[in-house]
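ugh ok fine here u go
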Amino acid sequence: QVRLVESGGGLVQAGGSLRLSCAASGLPSRTYVIGWFRQTPRKEREFVASISYNGQFFNYGDSVKGRFAISRDVAENTVSVQMNSLQPTDTAIYFCAAGPGGSRPSGYKFWGQGTQVTVSS
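structure:
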């Protein structure tokens, strides 16, 4: 069975940091990209970051570039995103996903249930 489980969300003050993790298991392809998306209060699903199956290639959404850093432990099939200098506009439910990749949700076949990140002013 495929499982994608996010953890690490919570409430943080503006300027603070959080580290989110995604534990993946049972994926049918060893070459899947792992991506992070967020569902904003405006109800838009937004690309955050992605990392290739070997952990060598990264991609970031414009709104988080320079503040977030994604990493992958290939052996353990875990992906983390370090989120620094958080702003209230980062408040969202954050999802990890697995699939062929890209910056669109359609590039991912499997999704976790999300973890809430709330940034206060």
